[in-house]
Amino acid sequence: MYRKLIKPLLFSLTIERAHRVALLLLRGIGLIPGGLWLLRKCYAVKHSALEREVFGIRFPNPVGLAAGFDRNGEALRPLSALGFGFVEIGTVTPRPQAGNPRPRVFRLPKDRAIVNRIGIANRGLDATVRHLRRGHEGILVGCNIGKNTDTPPENAPADYLRLFRNLYQYADYFTVNISCDNACHDEKTYTRGHLLSILDPLFDFRRGQSEYRPVMLKISPDLSDEEIDRVTDVLMSTPLDGIVASNGSHGSRQGLRTSRTSLDKIGSGRLSGAPLTRRAAEIVRRIRTRSGGTYPIIGAGGLMSPDDVRAMLDAGADLVQIYTGFVYEGPGFAGDICRALIADAERAAQAQAAVPVQNTASDAPAGPNSSAGPDTPSGTDAAAGMTTEQQARLPQEPATKA
Ligand SMILES: Cc1cc2nc3c(=O)[nH]c(=O)nc-3n(C[C@H](O)[C@H](O)[C@H](O)COP(=O)(O)O)c2cc1C
């Protein structure tokens, strides 16, 4: 029904209008008695093989919705009912901002891609708190935070801290977004000093809290290998919990199927979707290798099929996020990925059962992200899904989730 009826209808609208309609539809369905139940029945997939323990949080499945779709947390329940294991809201800025003039988001159907230069349009902190206050029991929510476009660089840390403090009690984890349009990539963005000027105040605030909220850093796919290594070193030497890799790309548009004329007409913006698949997985692999596999990585970028997700998990991601794939594949996409992962797990279990008895379970293959598998890096308490280092960062009192 989605492919035959709803997708052509949505694709006949501009992508921003289609996004608005989709959000309204989802919210509307969420308000009808039985609506959420129906969505869940149609789309969500539950299976113990999908569960993951990452940074101390138990995820029902590893497939999340990436930031930018539900910017202010308006549609958490229906989005979760579509089968996402978690939803990252944002990017939220302290004050509301309108973003860049329209049109500013474009589909590239021949490339299964999107170009956007929205400029972090969002309703701001207060509206987000209002939405989150309604509660989201049973739904894991990440808050992606960023500075206002007109905040001068020297005041950026204050923007991030204000968001972190005010959203702390409502989010399960945070993503610090320094890679988006309004804090664009320059040489300084990924230096240790700049990163810590933003992150340190967040760590200080967290130390005074009774509950622990993991902090992730979202990076651009346009970083050089040297910059990726530098960020990974920050990850390993500070209380930063993990990395979200990656955002859309400002890089080259060589090799796209969309004509040069159309691309010129579209103009600047971040490219996401299929052209990102390979680079995003490479980045995840590089971080994973350098960090020894001990730190959580959320893989994002060009995950357009279950096979792309498998490749991202194989590269070392603990969780994944999708955006463009959701736009092109529709509401059943998270469920499709989950079903493919269940099939993999069942095949692996069958293969393990077929192994002769002397080859004990410890010899059997397990996925690279299986929290209790032999691939579990040393120094990791697999049962808790956290490294010993991360456990040490927990407050004295055992943290309890809201
Ligand atoms: C229209 C659009 C808006 C986005 N807005 C945000 C945003 O506000 N903050 C952010 O961190 N990422 C944003 N992203 C990036 C996505 O979260 C994701 O990292 C990126 O698109 C790569 O994943 P994909 O190839 O599955 O789309 C946006 C992406 C798109 C297409």
TrEMBL record:
Domain of life from the UniProt record: Bacteria
Named cofactor requirement(s): FMN
Pathway, per record: Pyrimidine metabolism; UMP biosynthesis via de novo pathway; orotate from (S)-dihydroorotate (quinone route): step 1/1
One Pfam match: DHO_dh
Gene Ontology MF term list: dihydroorotate dehydrogenase (quinone) activity
Dihydroorotate dehydrogenase catalytic domain boundaries: 50-342
Location in or out of the cell: Membrane
Single GO BP term: 'de novo' pyrimidine nucleobase biosynthetic process
Ranges annotated as biased composition (Polar residues): 368-379
UniProt EC number: 1.3.5.2
Keyword field: Flavoprotein, FMN, Membrane, Oxidoreductase, Pyrimidine biosynthesis
SUPFAM superfamilies: FMN-linked oxidoreductases
UniProt catalytic activity: (S)-dihydroorotate + a quinone = orotate + a quinol
EC class name: oxidoreductase
Listed InterPro entries: Aldolase_TIM, DHO_dehydrogenase, Dihydroorotate_DH_2, Dihydroorotate_DH_cat, Dihydroorotate_DH_CS
GO cellular component: cytoplasm; plasma membrane
Region (Disordered): 354-402
Chain's role: Catalyzes the conversion of dihydroorotate to orotate with quinone as electron acceptor.
Family: Belongs to the dihydroorotate dehydrogenase family. Type 2 subfamily.
Protein name: Dihydroorotate dehydrogenase (quinone)
Protein species of origin: Alistipes dispar
Gene that specifies this protein: pyrD
